[in-house]
Design brief:
alpha+beta; Beta Polymerase, domain 2; 2 domains; seven-stranded mixed sheet
Length: about 350
């Protein structure tokens, strides 16, 4: 399935709020994990059923419910119905072609982000949609596949490290978003190293394969920009929002993630400009090499023009021509040719044409 656009034709004609999974089915069965905690205790449950999530809706502690596998529509419907999620919101969760966005439903926030990973073999960026529901005492996260970059957060919750156990669900939502944004820096660092390598190769010995690699990286930058650019609007809205779901203590943290997102966007723009400049440099290098080749060939052709003229004159089949009967005529003709060629070569050299 294309990464830039995904087929929505299966939803054509259906009523609003109808759940249709748009995307690639990446795991066979949905997996639900529950982490419930407060400052003094922590409870972790893996591979639970939908019904086991229901009691955590009204618990005073903070609950993080993570669902891997959004292609199982009955699971999404059951969880959404119990937590009172809007049908259009559930529709957006199973549609993996969403852009990063924030929607305020008064009693909860709906946040969409893109979690990105880089394939080190071909430097292709893979995207996974992450949907977060921030409620008064819970955070629901929906992922396309099992495995993510949230393990350090789980470790901090489990071992009571940092301030996550002392804060509310808004801080947990911040931690998840911060982990996603921090991973962007890792991807950009690897892409930056690749761009510098291609730049060195372009200066020393540009090839057609180098140009293909540049075009491929430029395409990845477009995909990366599409995934990251709208996120700054989400974080700016969270920073300014006065909802009771967001405590004043977490506002500086969302502002920090916003600053990181701006840095990511600036880095993306810088790498895009570098790649565009590298394409121009490649074309200039190829043009200069072509001009050098043409210059050498032109000089060679120019030197041989008078020699060809002499050879053509004495190659004519006339009986009476000067020097035909002279014993040294052949050697004299060669001498004239060598002198003319050497004189032209020295003249071109003095003019710095070669």
């Amino acid at each position: 399935m294309p990464r830039f656009t995904k087929k929505r034709s299966r939803k054509s004609g259906l009523a609003p709020g109808t759940l249709v999974h748009i995307g690639e089915q990446k795991i066979s069965k949905a997996k639900i994990t529950i982490i419930d905690y407060n400052e003094t205790s922590c409870e972790i449950k893996s591979s639970v059923s939908c019904e086991e999530c229901y009691p955590y809706k009204d618990k005073p502690s903070v609950t993080w419910i993570n669902i891997d596998g959004i292609h199982e529509l009955p699971v999404i419907e059951k969880v959404g119905a119990h937590f009172g999620l809007h049908p259009l919101l559930l529709e957006d969760i199973v549609n993996t072609d969403q852009r990063p966005k924030l929607e305020d439903y008064d009693s909860y926030f709906f946040i969409v982000l893109k979690m990105l990973t880089l394939n080190p073999q071909n430097f292709e960026i893979n995207s996974e949609q992450i949907s977060l529901i921030l409620g008064s005492n819970f955070v629901l996260s929906f992922q396309e596949t099992e495995g993510d970059i949230f393990d350090p957060i789980r470790d901090r919750i489990k071992n009571n490290k940092g301030r996550v156990r002392k804060m509310g669900p808004d801080y947990l939502a911040y931690s998840l978003m911060d982990a996603i944004v921090d991973n962007y820096f890792i991807i950009l660092e690897k892409l930056g190293e690749r761009v510098e390598f291609l730049e060195d190769a372009l200066v020393t010995k540009p090839t057609q394969a180098t140009l293909h690699e540049i075009h491929k990286l430029k395409r990845e930058m477009i995909f990366l920009r599409k995934s990251v650019w709208p996120l700054r609007e989400v974080l700016a809205a969270l920073e300014r929002d006065e909802s009771p779901l967001l405590t004043p203590q977490t506002s500086p943290f969302f502002r920090d993630v916003y600053d990181h997102t701006i840095q990511v966007i600036d880095t993306i723009e810088t790498l895009r400009d570098m790649l565009s400049g590298m394409i121009d440099l490649y074309l200039s290098s190829i043009s200069n090499r072509m001009n050098s080749v043409m210059k050498v060939l032109t000089v060679i052709a120019t030197i041989f023009m008078p020699l060809t003229f002499l050879a053509g004159v004495y190659g004519m089949n006339f009986k009476y021509m000067p020097e035909l009967e002279w014993p040294y005529g052949y050697y004299f003709t060669w001498l004239i040719m060598v002198v003319i060629g050497a004189a032209m070569f020295l003249y071109f050299k003095r003019k710095n044409w070669i």
